[in-house]
Amino acid sequence: MLDFVLIIVLLLLVLAMGMPVAFSLCTTSILLMGIYGLPMKIAAATVFSSFDSFVILSVPLFILMSQVLLDGRIGNDLFEVMNTWVRHLPGGLAIATILACAFFAAITGSGAATAATIGMVAYPAMVDRGYDKSFTLGLLAAGGTLGILIPPSVPMVLYGSVTEESVGKLFIAGVVPGLLLAFLFIVMAVFISARGKFTPMPKASWKERIAITRKNIFGILLPFIIVGGIYSGLFTPTEAAAVGLTYSLFVTLVVYKTLTPSQLPGICLKSIPTSCMIAMVIGGALLFGRVLTMLRIPQMLTEFVISNQFSPIIFIIAMNVLMMILGCILETVSIILLTMPLVTPILHALGIDPIWYGVIVTVNMTLALITPPVGMNLYVIKGLREDISMKNVIQGVIPFIVLMLVFLVLIIVFPSLSLYLPSVMQ
């Protein structure tokens, strides 16, 4: 265990120097190889082989698809559809915002893209109708977290690639928790809205509802194509990403014509930084994990947990606390790739279902998106308008953080919420 403590201290020191996470992991790995006399040739081989994965191929495809939908303004249409159906209800605009976030989440797999896309159209609409500014900002930041819980989900793809679990089962396992969290957000939104002074909107006629739904039916069908195709076994998650990207291009270029072919090179360029960042973190994390494996660190941790007779629930609680701390200082990709190579052997030793634990990890990552100081969604929402301050965003998101902590407890106490659909699929 002393070796493990020294390795973590070394990694923290390198991170404290201000290096990006990917380079910190590579630097720490190379230092460890020199200290312990491991062959240096494994560095290039491991980093190169980390990209040779059919599962990982889905990540840049999902990222490019989300950029196509973002620039194609599909989120605006989804918000318009949801708003038409629920705008007359108490807190109708808030409900429409969460429903639009849930639908867009089921298309893109990205929390930041969901928050940015729905935020651009929902924020001015809610503020103009008298909704509290901080509440609106918090609602948008929290609603964006549905992007990584409702499938498809980039963090779930990474979790599946590291643990060698079925990404399809992980996606299906996230459906019920994702819908439940969306429902809890709606309840919270209605409760807070009822205490404020907003201007209600008139009820839409059935003719208007049907007309707007029919107009935007192609965008509404996309999540059903992706999740339904995976659930039915028609295609794998990676193939689902390719199908989703192709369908998105068809909808935005041919059906709605919100994009032109001349815009596609720019859209591809916009998606490259995120894809490259994730690829670099994957390479660095897998190299770090390879070094730890050669030093038998995972085996040592497993033996430590078993010898001290940790119960599964105590281990899960401890890991949740650790992930919450890491979520305040690291982004989701780094947390998953750093922890799972060490945790996976312990899960098997304690008899913890890896699919259930994958949902727990993903829920924790939703919290990481909105916990300061590095919560990605906080900065996305702050960037919507120049008059938005980080103080307003954090004030608005606090009630939703509390709600998500309660939701995390529910997921831990009731594993069937995550495991029922995968068991039916099996």
Question: Helicity level, as a percent range?
Answer: over 70%
Q: How far apart lie the N and C ends?
A: 39 Å
Mean pLDDT: 87
Largest sheet: none
**Count of separate structural domains:** 1
How many helices? The count is 22
Question: Would you give an account of this structure?
Answer:
- The protein has 426 residues and is mainly α.
- It has one domain.
- 77% of the residues lie in helices and 0% in strands.
- The protein has 22 helices and no strands.
- α4 runs parallel beside α14.
- The chain is globular and about 70 Å long.
- It starts with a helix and ends with a helix.
Structural descriptors:
globular, 426 residues, mainly alpha, 22 helices
Blueprint (SSEs and pairs):
Layout: H1 2-16, H2 21-36, H3 41-50, H4 58-71, H5 74-86, H6 92-108, H7 111-128, H8 133-144, H9 154-163, H10 167-173, H11 175-194, H12 206-215, H13 217-232, H14 237-255, H15 264-294, H16 297-307, H17 312-327, H18 332-350, H19 354-368, H20 376-382, H21 390-413, H22 416-425
Helix pairs in contact: 1-2, 2-15, 3-15, 4-14, 4-15, 5-6, 5-7, 5-12, 6-7, 6-8, 6-11, 6-13, 7-8, 7-20, 8-11, 8-20, 8-21, 9-18, 9-19, 10-22, 11-21, 13-14, 15-18, 16-18, 17-18, 17-19, 18-19, 19-21
